[in-house]
Design goal:
Elements lengths: L2 H31 L4 H27 L4 E4 L5 H19 L5 H17 L6 E3 L2 H40 L16 E7 L3 E8 L15 E8 L2 E5 L6 E3 L4 E4 L5 E6 L5 E8 L1
Helix pairs in contact: 1-2, 1-3, 2-5, 4-5
The protein binds fe (ii) ion.
Length: 275
């Protein structure tokens, strides 16, 4: 290998070592930012430090015996490499500043490792030097492994995110999930804000005791979604019969009673209390 090529190659090694160290710095920042994931990131950091050492060792071997090496190509065009370094540094700042989303960092790191795989370390220079080839092979194998680790972790983080989003939706079935004990009426708040409270009521055969009226300071809209019920309102002769889908709006302080609910099956109500 002629001196000019050697100089270019050594320059390339320097840049690659810098890239590996910057990647190590990103993983170090992640380990500090996300203590619960510290081991995962610290392991990646150590591996990237190792790659930078490998590259230093490779440079040493080439410098000692340039005659054993021939032909070389660049790892990355300088412009591309500058962009990668700038992107990495911006990510490090975001992570250190607490502005980074772990999922986005995992995706970025995985894609960066993929670029390193695409750079084909094993085609950079031709040689029969076994020690050199071992160092290169270490890096190539590790790049595949690290990308796989990042990809696996990313899939886990995404699955966890989907699980949390589903949990937030609190899916349920008002008709299927009934209380085991129906000997008493049950009241369960489904949603509540300063403006309203939405409640599920499950009855079976219960009624307001004879001679008593119900009266509330808030308006109430009730609907029967299963079963049957009968209500009576003070000053209204005809009772209001409710079956599935039936509803009635009870103004605040309007005296009323539930005179009957079906004793043969659960009656499920939705009650919306609002000011
Ligand atoms: Fe690496």
């Amino acid at each position: 290998m002629n001196p000019a090529d050697l100089e270019n190659l050594l320059n390339g090694f320097k840049m690659m070592a810098k890239l590996e160290l910057t990647l190590a710095a990103l993983y170090k920042a992640c380990a500090a930012a996300w203590p619960e994931e510290r081991d995962f990131w610290a392991d990646l950091e150590a591996q990237e430090q190792g790659h930078a050492r490998n590259i230093g060792e490779m440079a040493r071997l080439v410098t000692e015996h340039p005659e054993r090496y021939e032909g070389h190509r660049v790892f990355f065009q300088p412009k591309v490499l500058d962009r990668m370094l700038a992107d990495l540094k911006a990510r490090i700042d975001d992570v250190a500043g607490g502005r980074a989303d772990p999922e986005a960092v995992l995706r970025f790191a995985r894609d960066t490792e993929q670029s390193l795989i695409n750079a084909r370390y094993d085609e950079i220079v031709k040689t029969d030097d076994l020690a050199f080839e071992r160092l290169v092979k270490d890096i190539v194998v590790a790049n595949y492994e690290i990308r796989h680790q990042l990809h696996t972790r990313l899939a886990e983080v995404q699955a966890e995110k989907r699980r949390r989003m589903l949990e937030e939706l609190r899916p349920g079935d008002l008709l299927a999930e009934l209380p085991a004990d129906l000997s008493r009426e049950t009241f369960e708040t489904l949603l509540e804000t300063g403006a309203f409270r939405l409640e599920r009521i499950v009855s079976r055969g219960q009624a307001t005791p004879e001679g008593r009226w119900l009266e509330s300071d808030t308006h109430e809209w009730v609907m029967v979604i299963r079963g049957r019920a009968r209500l009576e309102f003070e000053g209204v002769d005809a009772p209001v019969e409710l079956g599935p889908g039936g509803h009635v709006t009870i103004p605040a302080r309007r005296r009323h009673r539930v005179t009957w609910t079906d004793p043969g099956e659960p009656t499920v109500w939705l009650a919306l209390h609002y000011a």
